[in-house]
Design a protein that fits this description.
Layout lengths: L7 E4 L6 E4 L5 E5 L2 H7 L4 E7 L3 E5 L3 E6 L3 E5 L6 E6 L5 E4 L14 E3 L14 E2 L6 H22 L1
Parallel strand pairs: 3-10, 10-11
Antiparallel strand pairs: 1-2, 2-5, 3-4, 4-9, 6-7, 7-8, 8-9
Bound molecules: zinc ion (ZN) (2 copies).
One zinc ion binds next to helix 1.
């Protein structure tokens, strides 16, 4: 795996909205729910859960679309309408960024997959943990731990 040097930059389809990430994500995931299938117009969505203080919009002003409250808000490029990131109400410390937008492709590798109960039958991805729904709080804390260890291992292999 290539060494990731932060900050990593990213952009929407048209390039008018630019984002940057200053620190590694805390977890990466794929979600197979029907909502994500529709939002992505594809088989599943990809997420890099990032600390809010490590993520910023460098250029442009995102607009809300998709689900617009009260439980969560989806944010898009105002011009090309690319789905950029999600903010969950009450989880202000984190932001769920669509990691395929980043220049660093390895950030998109999903560590876990969620909502496999709604997965399209032909889909198979190399996630290390699968959940028919979403992980509960205990599982979630352990996943953060496990994921950060995989990041450490990558670091030491790099040298
Ligand atoms: Zn755009
Ligand atoms: Zn979903």
């Amino acid at each position: 795996m290539d060494k990731i040097s932060y900050p990593v930059k990213g952009s929407c389809r048209c390039g008018k909205l630019e984002i940057a990430l200053a620190a590694p994500p805390v977890l990466t995931a794929a979600c197979h729910c029907r909502g994500c299938q529709k939002m992505s117009s594809s088989a599943f969505s990809l997420t890099a859960m990032c600390k809010s203080d490590s993520f910023r919009v460098v250029r442009g002003t995102p607009v809300k679309g998709g689900v617009q409250g009260p439980e969560l808000d989806h944010f898009f490029c105002p011009d090309c309408k690319t789905w950029m990131f999600t903010r969950i109400t009450g989880m202000d410390d984190f932001v769920n960024v669509r990691p395929t937008l980043f220049d660093q492709k390895s950030l998109a590798t999903p560590f876990i997959e969620t909502m496999t109960s709604e997965k399209l039958p032909w889909v198979s991805i190399p996630a290390q943990h699968s959940f028919t729904g979403f992980p509960d709080v205990d599982d979630f804390m352990k996943l953060l731990d496990d994921f950060s260890q995989t990041q450490d291992q990558q670091g030491s292999r790099r040298g």
